[in-house]
Every structure is written in structure tokens, then in C-alpha cells.
Write a structure and sequence with these properties.
Strand content: under 5%
Number of helices: 3
Number of strands: 0
Largest sheet: none
Helix content: 55-70%
Radius of gyration: 43 Å
Structural class: mainly alpha
Length: about 160
């Protein structure tokens, strides 16, 4: 790459470059592929109504009472349906709960029995006896016996 400045050529032409005018406003009549979101509010802060629209069914107190009654009827129907739905299924729910509770009781009893009898210690004892480590075998056996005695007294 050269750092020398290039000499102007004799046959070169000067072209004037002019920026094209780009409009900054969007015309709504033009076809654009993306949706245009236009804020048509007057800019004033909007206040929410004091009484929601679903409670108003006309003017005055009578309209408010009708709207409140209609809303309460809707709530009662919705919660009544939920209660009926689960009420029909509650015998099945109870059956599943009892069945899994029985499974859980047996799993917990199995874990308690494995802890109480220290089945892992038996494996260690047998491995130590097979390896010919008599003192290690006796130490493991004594520790297991003490653990089982402590487990008997904690019930």
C-alpha cells in the first residue's frame, strides 16, 4: 500500500453530489408493509372511571345495582363450576392420596429398616473378612452392634 498522494488526472471530471431530499413525515396513504401505530389522543391525562364499565348497566343507582348483581352471578357461576368439577373428581383424588400414602409408608419403613440394620456394615464386614483383616472386621462388627443398640433405644 502506498502512502503517496495520487496526482489528479487530466481527463477526470468533477461530479457534483447532491443529497436527495428524504421526507421525515410518514404519509398514511402510502403502502407500508409494517403496521403504523398512531396516537390520536389529545395528550391530556386520561382518568379511569370510578365505577368500572362492567358494573354499569345504565344510569343511576338502579343501573349500578343491576351491574353488580350480574357480576356476582357471573362469579358464582364460575366458582360453582370449579367446585362441581373438583367435587365430582374428589373420590378419585382421595383414592390416589391414600394409595400413594401407603406406598410412602412402605418406602419410609424400608429406609428405616436399612438404617437400623446397617446393611452396608455387613458388606464391609464380609469384605474385611475376605481380605484377612481380622481386626478391621471386629471393629466394624462392634461399631454396627453399637449402632443397632442405639437405634433400639431411640424408639
Amino acid at each position: 500500500m502506498s502512502t503517496d498522494t495520487a496526482e489528479p488526472q487530466a481527463n477526470g471530471q468533477v461530479i457534483s453530489l447532491r443529497a436527495a431530499e428524504a421526507p421525515t413525515e410518514v404519509r398514511l396513504s402510502e403502502d407500508h408493509r409494517a403496521p403504523a401505530y398512531v396516537d390520536v389522543s389529545d395528550g391530556a391525562a386520561a382518568r379511569k372511571p370510578v365505577i368500572p364499565s362492567h358494573l354499569r348497566e345504565g344510569d343511576g343507582l338502579a343501573g349500578l345495582v343491576r351491574g353488580v348483581r350480574r357480576h356476582l352471578a357471573h362469579l358464582a357461576a364460575r366458582h360453582g363450576h370449579a367446585a362441581a368439577y373438583h367435587g365430582i373428581r374428589s373420590p378419585g383424588y382421595i383414592t390416589l392420596t391414600v394409595a400413594w400414602a401407603v406406598v410412602g409408608v412402605f418406602r419410609i419403613l424400608g429406609r428405616i429398616l436399612r438404617w437400623w440394620h446397617a446393611t452396608d456394615l455387613y458388606q464391609l464386614e464380609h469384605q474385611a473378612a475376605a481380605d484377612g483383616l481380622l481386626t478391621e472386621h471386629l471393629r466394624i462388627h462392634k461399631q454396627g452392634r453399637e449402632s443397632r443398640m442405639a437405634a433400639c433405644w431411640c424408639w
